[in-house]
Amino acid sequence: MQKIEFQEKEDSLNLRKVISQYLYKWPWFVASILVFVIGAYIYLRYSVPQYESTTVLKFDKKQSNLSSALSDLENLGMGLGNADELKSEGAVVTSRPILMEVVKNLNLSVEYFNTGEIKDSQLFSKIPVVAKVLSYNNNENFKFSEYTMIDLKGDEFTLQNEKKATFKGKFNIPLNLDFGIVMFQRNSAFPFKSKYKIIFWNPIEKVKKLEKKIEINLPDEKAMLMEINLIGSLPEKSEAILNEVTKQYNLDGQKDKNLQAQNTQEFIDKRLEVITKDLSGVENQKEDFENRNRIVDIQAQAELALQNTSDNTKVLLQQQAQLDLLNSLSGEASKGNNQLMPSNLGLNPSLEQTISQYNSLIISRNKTLKQATNENPAVIEMNREIASLKEVIRDNIREQKQTVQTGISQLQNQINTNNSMIEKVPGQSKVYRGIERQQNLKEQLFLFLLQKREENAINLSVNVPKAKIVNPAFTEDIPVSPKKDIILLGALLLGVLFPFAVLYFLFMLDDKIYTRDDIKERSELGVLVDIPSLKDNENHLIQKNDFSELAEAFRVLVSNLKFVLPVKDTAKVVMVTSSVKGEGKTLVSVNLALTIANKNSRALLIGSDIRNPQIQRYDSEPTKRKGLTEYLYDNSVNVEELIHTSTTNPSCDVIYAGAIPPNPQELLSNGRYQKLIEEMSSQYAYIIIDSAPLMLVSDTLSIVDTADATLYVVRSGVSRNILIDFANDLVRDSKLKNVSFVVNDVSKRAGGYGYNYSYGYGYSQTNDKKSWWRKIFKS
Asked: Which segments of the protein form a coiled coil according to its record (predicted)?
């Protein structure tokens, strides 16, 4: 019995084999690359290029080191404090109120397209028809509506919607459509083609689209620069949108600046009206007192006291003016409404800063209320901060009033002390000084308010833009998409990777045997020959003087078989078997018998697959004959009655399987088969046994002891790797002896390898005239 020790083979990558697998499929790679590249070309041909438009803004930075003399004019600037404020301005640029104004001013809610056979090209400025939406219906679900303008005749036209419904209208006359009322105007500067497509959008939807498309970048925060980018198919439209965005942004900033100045002006005007009346009354009182008392000069003895009183009075006037201003401001702060408070009145810097923060927060809250309700968390938080700041303002005013009142009391005490020194001065002089004091107080307050009104007027009249436009909107010449080079390169890579991935998946799932190399990777058993693949129209039997590839393969098999068979005087018995049906076992058996038989060495072929006889397929006389079955169950049957000489090779005899028995296992194991082999061994040089498949039935194992050598047939592209393992197990368990493999039906390109059967004799019995494309795509 054959004793072979099977060693576990280490998995190693056969690079040549792997590359050969894929190289054999090169037509599919070429076809895939062509498909992807053509697809990419078609995509590039009909896709709409997208261009990036950019505008650059520059913001001024606030000066924090202004002198006290100029601090009152600080609010005239429009600068930003730091980079964080610059980032917040980015959200203001793309806010919905600003974008809504852009949509309205540029009429972006209406889009025009020049219809084409494959794609539609968008129009923006050079349009023969202009549509303006006068009003929308109260339809909250309306997003857009598409119409096609056709049949233009004079001033009349016809619109057709997506549902093929038609609307007839005239230019410059409102037309009622599904979503609202629209007026169309004719632009005679451009000729009207066959038809145009017009899409009407809900302005809110266009604002949402602009919010997503406009991008804000801060290339250099320290330089206070801001880039605004927009990608679109029409550069002129994108540039117009960006220019309008910067315009509306500056207008919005100017409105915010003027709003605070206007509130301050209203407050000053009210106070001037009150102070003017008070000053006029004091001046009339002074004039009347002078006329009644005929006052000309003050007594000389009170000059020194009066000098001290005068100094204290100056300070008292300033304190009283401060107290009066604080009282007025306290009245404004005590009001329950959240209105802007006057600022920049020369009060305590801490109070001025708190009022400025309060006014900024009021403006931010009012902006937010344009897009949200009072229940919005952000609005609620702002209201809380506003109330907190207002309470701080009230506290600051109360503290300053207490400080001023304390100073006034001290000054008044000093004045009273000085007045006691001038008791001898006539009472008229005291009254006169009191009137003058009131007059000076009102004059100072009046002049102070006039100065602030002029400063505020200057602030209101200066139209300084919030941001300087460094670069008006411009568009790059090279489109950002589609990128031709990247798409073509990507198509080329996909054209290579797609078939590679498919083939890799198929190769990974493929567990079939194709060549002798596949067997050597899994078994230590030898491979004697590769039988070439045959076409249906080719002869499957080896003929006399046959020099076909099939005949040459079996001659190689016979030569190699002689090295395997033992040296003996009796017939050398060769059993041909396989794992399952359909692997070519019978083909190998018949042709081996025809090849090995000659005048000096007769051969006998025994059909031992009595369950499924197949040798009869190669018989030119398909008549019922007695066979092996009759011999096994009938002791009276003579062997000579079973032997039939082959018509193909007279030196080859055949014993057919005979009738199919109900108990083939019992017949093959009754000992008659071994007796038959022993009897025929003296008459033939070779006995070829065509046995049953080993994996399906155990019949062959009953007669395996009669064989000197076993040819295990596997079929290229059909037999699986597991069958090789099955054969290894049979040899390892000593159920088969002297086993060698025969690979049947091996194509010239088996498994993707170049495997040519040119033996070099120059003979050819076939003429393959396949068309070139079939040869290329043959797998």
From this structure: none
Please, is 733 exposed, middle or buried when counting C-beta atoms within 10 Å of its C-beta (0-12, 13-18, 19+)?
A: exposed
Cβ neighbours of residue 260 closer than 8 Å, sequence gap 6 or more: 75, 340, 343, 359, 363
Neighbours of 570 (CB within 10 A): 15
Shared-domain flag, residues 528 and 632: yes
Nearest to 441 by CA among 321, 278, 272: 321
Q: Give yes or no: residues 588 and 717 share one domain.
A: yes
69 Cβ neighbours under 8 A, 6+ residues apart: none
Q: Convert the pLDDT of each residue in 558-602 to its tens digit.
A: 999 989 898 888 889 999 999 888 888 899 999 999 999 988 889
Collect all residues with Cβ–Cβ distance below 8 Å to 289 and sequence separation of at least 6. Answer: 295, 428, 431, 432, 435
Decide: helix, strand or coil at residue 776: helix
Shared-domain flag, residues 488 and 587 = no
Tell me whether the omega of the peptide bond preceding residue 426 falls within 30 degrees of 0, making it cis.
Answer: no
AA letter at 195: K
Decide if 496 is inside a domain: yes
Q: Which residue range forms the structural domain that includes residue 395? A: 299-439
Q: Percentage of the chain with pLDDT > 90?
A: 15
pTM: 0.55
In sequence order, what DSSP letters do the residues of 61-127 get, joined into one string?
BPPS---TTTGGGGGG---BSSHHHHHHHHHHHT-HHHHHHHHHHHTTTEEEEE--SS-PEEESSS-
Q: In the structure, what pLDDT confidence band is assigned to residue 427 with cuts at 50, 70 and 90?
A: low
What pLDDT digit, counting tens, does each position of 597-633 carry? 988 889 999 988 888 888 877 776 555 578 888 888 8
Domain presence at residue 538: yes
Strands 196-201 and 572-578: unpaired
